[in-house]
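Example 3.2
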Amino acid sequence: MLFLMNDAVFDLDEASPVTSADARRFEKLGFDYLMELGCELFAEDPLLHRNDPERARRLAWLIHTRSPEINAALFAAPEIACDPALVEPRFCALPDTVMRQLKARDGKGRLDAVAADRAVWGRMAA
């Protein structure tokens, strides 16, 4: 299962990012809480997906376990250490072919914020 977090693609089928004990602890967390958590994390570090990919992968895994149809998340923070309320979260479900193409681009170092925006989010259009 591939998951796009901002402009990084994570393979969630690799070894579980959390222990089974942690997975049980996280079972009670709702999607709204995870969205707030993501906003807080990306408010601290807008490049979390690049600077701490394991933490970003755990967040992606948690989002996917709560909403299995979601395989892409964008947490757009305007600056480092901003108010979490300023982080704009977006979520979507992308076809497998698109996810594989994004993974291939990411693997070649050719997936950046602009390329991901053009392919998925359309925030910079117009």
